[in-house]
Design a protein that fits this description.
The complex is a heterodimer. By secondary structure, chain A is mainly α. Chain A contains 13 helices and no strands. Chain B is α/β, with parallel strands linked by helices. Chain B is globular and about 65 Å long. In chain B, helix 3 packs across helix 4. Chain B is 32% helix and 22% strand. Classes of the chains: A mainly alpha, B alpha/beta. At the A-B interface, helix 8 and helix 9 of A face helix 2 and helix 3 of B.
Chain lengths: 307, 328
């Protein structure tokens, strides 16, 4: 187990390096640069700016210096867009916000989604099942940029229960709507995966054995069926977790939460090289970690899998 | 002595898209204390479904009518929670496929112990100790170590032994074994039959052995019931049915079994194939395949009639059955 984790972490380092190199090359290949604007700037001024950010050096040297700073000093460099901010500051400010509502959304989507899936499967073809399936179809097809304004309309403008935006240090009233808007479609997917997987497990021979033993239904469902049924759900949860805690530009836009999702999109639009790279590396590291956790969970659920 | 199980007018039906099929048709039988009853028939004869219905294990589209009296309790009239009190404790079942009948995610000891915790109110520790003892009784080497294993770490024969141990933990009055040896090696089969004989004897458990293997029947059963297309067509002791079959289907089963000593070049199958229970032939279901049929067989379903010493058969033909080797 510990050996497995160490081995995976050892593989993670070259993976991240490859990620950095590829992102770096892609950025440089893409047309435009951070300082290309509508106004023509005198060549001398432009040269000065490029020298300030080290862009006058050959590309390979830029890459080597960047990697050196990241690996040995955990320094992602200055932002090319905001003159007085470093990428570390941008991430340090936005990521906690994103992680907060993302993690809540993840917990919410998983708990409600799995419960909904179990109920629908156990009461297959009852009105409860139809209700759950109907809800999940609806939740899947309505995009979050539609859900978000509806939430604001209902809870802020009509009912006046919740503030329409802002972060306010992560006060619960500011967190609720981003969490709901972000989790709805994921919740629906989790419910559908749980339902179909649960249905399959419930018709398996070993569940028949459990019933033949005279175990009460709750014990058959939670003691025997749930763990094997969660296998496909868990493999879906890994990427979902990363997607959620790295935020969403839609959520940040509608609720002015100031998360990292908006910063990421802006940096790409502005060719803010260092911010793009910084956030990409963060995403990469999170993805690797999430996959590692998924694999460990897999081994716990299915004893046939040896780490 | 009163029988441990009396089944009266058992009918099992399954609702399909546009119709209903009757998988078990007016089945009547008794199971005496301590005896072994073999239920014999081809695939689709309803032999498994009849006993699944007693255990409350029919598929969702299945319904059952009739009575199944265990003492004065009618198993078929019980609510699900009430049935849960009996199944696993007084009536237990072992299934055909040991490879998929144990939960892959749980340790053997967990799967065994929960039966005792559920039915005997034992605490986890005591239950696990008894589980290990039972594993030893069914012939699993190093039972304490094996109890910690997961099913995938065991062979098919070992898993079936675990299933037997699980079924017998509460020393049930009735054990239903649904083709328990079909998926196993022939060498393991013989060991398994020995195990059934010893343990049911020790615990005074009545055994129902559902099988299509007459070798198994000869090895273990006291009485047998032959089923065809959802009905029982002949009942009697194993000796009577083996040496003096009265129903053409029973005769067909016996003559189609190959014998080592004969070494005949041809097998003697029953011609034709089992009927589709959605479209049973009129009259006797067996008549299209029967060498002894006459006009009555095409029109009337033969009722199961009592013969001498508790034997019964469902056939219109009255003369002695004389087997003629088919010219083919």
């Amino acid at each position: 187990m510990i050996q497995f984790i160490l081995r995976r972490l050892a593989v993670a380092i070259p993976t991240l390096l490859v990620l950095i190199v590829i992102s770096f090359i892609l950025m440089k290949v893409a047309p435009g640069n951070p300082f290309a604007g509508e106004r023509t700037v005198p060549q001398a001024v432009l040269d000065n700016i490029l020298a300030r950010y080290g862009l006058d050096k050959p590309e390979w040297q830029q890459l080597v210096e960047y990697v050196y700073n990241v690996v040995f000093r955990l320094d992602f460099g200055p932002s090319f867009q905001y003159r007085d901010r470093t990428v570390n500051e941008i991430i340090g400010q936005g990521f906690p916000v994103t992680f907060t509502y993302g993690a809540w959304a993840f917990v919410f989507a998983t708990l409600i989604g799995v419960s909904l899936g179990i109920v629908a499967a156990v009461r297959q073809n009852s009105w409860l099942d139809y209700l759950a399936v109907g809800f999940t179809v609806g939740a899947q097809v309505i995009p979050n940029f539609v859900i978000a304004p509806i939430l604001v309309l209902v809870f802020t403008l009509w009912l006046r229960w919740l503030p329409g935006g802002g972060w306010n240090g992560g006060h619960w009233s500011n967190v609720i709507m981003p969490v709901i808007a972000l989790s709805t479609s994921y919740l629906a997917n989790i419910a559908r995966i749980t339902r179909s997987s649960m249905l399959e497990v419930l018709s398996s021979n070993y569940i028949r054995t459990a019933r033949a033993k005279g175990l009460p239904s709750y014990q058959v469902i939670f003691g025997h069926a749930l763990r094997p049924a969660l296998l496909p759900v868990v493999s879906y949860l890994g990427p979902v977790f990363v997607g959620m805690v790295t935020g969403s530009v839609v959520i940040d836009l509608y609720f002015s939460t100031g998360g990292i999702g908006q910063a990421f999109v802006n940096s790409a639009l502005n060719r803010d090289y260092s911010t793009i790279l910084g956030i990409t590396i963060l995403l990469g590291a999170l993805t690797i970690t999430a996959n590692l956790v998924v694999d460990i969970l897999y081994a716990w659920i299915d004893p046939k899998i040896q780490l | 002595m009163a029988p441990v199980l009396t089944v009266k007018d058992l009918n099992v039906r399954f609702a399909l898209h546009h119709s209903t099929v009757t998988a078990v048709n007016d089945l009547n039988f008794t199971l005496e204390a301590g005896e072994t009853l073999a239920v014999v028939g081809e695939s689709g004869s309803g032999k498994s479904q009849a006993f699944m219905s007693l255990m409350g294990l029919l598929a969702k589209n299945g319904t059952v009518t009739g009575e199944a009296l265990m003492g004065d309790v009618n198993l078929l009239a019980l609510s699900k929670p009430a049935l849960n009190e009996y199944r696993g404790r007084d009536i237990a079942m072992i299934f055909q496929d040991p490879m998929t009948s144990l939960n892959p995610a749980l340790r053997i000891k967990t799967q065994l112990a929960e039966v005792l915790v559920r039915h005997k109110g034992q605490d986890q520790k005591t239950a696990e100790r008894h589980a290990v003892e039972m594993l030893e009784r069914v012939g699993i080497p190093e039972p304490a170590k094996r109890a910690e294993s997961y099913p995938h770490q065991m062979s098919g024969g070992m898993r079936q032994r675990v299933m037997i141990a699980m079924a017998l933990l509460c020393q049930p009055k009735i054990l239903i074994a649904d083709e328990p040896t079909t998926a196993l090696d022939v060498t393991v089969q013989a060991q398994m039959l020995d195990l059934f004989r010893t343990l049911t004897n020790d615990f005074g458990t009545s055994l129902v052995m559902i099988t299509h293997d007459l070798g198994v029947v000869a090895g273990i059963a006291d009485r047998m019931m032959v089923m065809y297309a959802g009905r029982s067509v002949e009942k009697g002791t194993v000796d009577e049915l083996f040496y003096d079959p009265r129903h053409p289907y029973t005769l067909g089963l016996l003559t189609s079994t190959p014998h080592v000593e004969e070494r005949s070049r041809r097998l003697n199958p029953i011609t034709g194939s089992p009927p589709n229970i959605e479209h049973l032939p009129r009259g006797c279901s067996f008549h299209p395949r029967c060498a002894f049929r006459f006009e009555r067989c095409f029109a009337e379903v033969p009722p199961l009639r009592e013969l001498e010493n508790g034997r019964a058969k469902a056939c219109h033909y009255e003369d002695k059955l004389v087997y003629e080797e088919s010219a083919a």
